[in-house]
Input
Amino acid sequence: MAGRRDAPELPDFGVLKQLARDQLIYLLEQLPGKKDLFIESDLMNPLDRIANVTILKKHDVDKLYKLENKLIQGVNDQLCFLIRPRISSVKQIAEIVNADKGEGRRHKYKIIFTPQKFYMCETVLEEEGIFGDVTFDEWDFYLLPLDNDLISMELPEFFRDYFLEGDHRWLCTVAKALQLLHSLFGPFSKTYGIGRCAKMTRWLWKEIAEDAESEMKQEADIGRVFFIDRDVDYVTPMCSQVVYEGLVDDVFRIKCGSVDFGSEVTSSDKSVKVLLNSQDKVFKEIRNEHFTNVFGFLSQKARKLQKEYDKRQGMNIQQMKDFVSQELKSLKQEHRLLSLHIGACESIMKKKTKQDFQELLKSEHALLEGFEIRESISCIEEHINRQISPYESLRLMCLLSLTESGLISKDYRSLKTQYLQSYGYEHMLTFANLKQIGMLTEQQPGEVLTVVESTMGKLVTDKAVGKLTDAFSSLARKSHFRAFSKRLNLIPRSEEEYDLKFPRDMAYVFSGAYVPLSCKIIEQVLERDGWTGMEEVSRLLNCSEFVSIEWATLSTPPHCSHLGTTCIVGDASVIQEGSDCAGFSLTVRPSPWCLFVRSGDETFHQMIRTVCSGNHPTKKQILISP
Output
């Protein structure tokens, strides 16, 4: 895809970093002189991408602290706090301020909320008795470029707040971020969307854009915008990722575009933090490759690097001097990255072999195709009873529920009981939350089905009853997933073995078993330039869709040199560059004419963490944009 001749160049999104950095520096300089900076833990990585320690030191930040659940005393007279608008963080600040007041220490306090301040924060400050002791500002840090075609809002609360708790407070933040893109890289020619959240976000953005009344440039860098709700496609993040980048995220957790490789990868006592983007030449080549092809590429790359090193043989002094000054440094860097990625591959292989990864994929593919459901349920039960992974077990249960429009009561109660007995009864809240957002639900069979089950139970064995129950349940409640899967051809049907080295469609990211729903919807809508012919799919998804020509109100349409560049807002884990495919594929990479904006890092692990009880450790936070 990167080699497509019709792909326009993407705008330079480095300006977003520069704007965020300049505003942060301005806010810090409102406290002249030396100061201590307290930073909320999940802002550490994004801040490092915007303004590292060296930049902060240049602007009189003397000491840096992580804001934690323990009392920390600053050493300077001025204390600055950089936090999300969370009640817990405000209360931690109140403890520090009240402790200083109790001991007679006099400091200046400044709170910087990002991306914005909510009224509830002021209320907490008043309740804690420190409202008059602090000043506060807002850092409009809406968008963080993680790669040349990927921008993240890094809003960890969004999924839980909106989809679980019905809290709309972040919609305005997303709309403001969109307006920032619109003002810098617009005007947009056309917007498409699907989902209630997407529709509200677009409406809020239009209100903000009308109030702004800023003069737009006539040449647009981004032509079209596609909004998509996360709940339009829960199935895709329930499937195991099998491309290299997806597996790295699954095993090591990618945070803010970087990953920490531990001793099992580095073969030393130290861990190494690596940025995963297009600047990493090795990663750029293998990030979208099916894992079965990665080792072959890395072996070929190692031989190529060795040849480059061997060129030193027979060089004269001047040639050696040029080699050292021009090539040696880049070769050493590439060699270091190659070693790390080889180590990561070996670690992934060990972990996935231990987890019976092939059996897991086989069960997933059976669930997607609707075959051998009873065998797949047995596999899930074995997975739970062996306590392989609480997340993997939940993911398989959710995939079963989503593809079958809910579990029949007998299976739901049985799987839930086994899971709670294996992983703890604190997960009762997890099941309640998953049920509320529709990821793991129980079917409500009619009276006729209950009578049939009862009668059959007297005549046949339990195993036969299970199969008959499945059959009658399918008749009683047809799976919507099966319907739109067939309509959109999400399950490729071919007698030939799927070629993972030279894939023919987006299904290669799931070993040819499934085309990601979100990607297929986007592809179809952009090809049709609207929702014509997609009405049935929209009805099955129970989502409202829209398409709007944004320049219709202008007297003359602006010239858009990048009408082929589409900005997609939402669904962070299901878009990726796809070999020679003409659409989109999976896992955080859009095609080169497509910019992707998301609210946070999101995989199934993060989705589950946002709805679970929080009584067990996890490696990463959450996600998601409308």
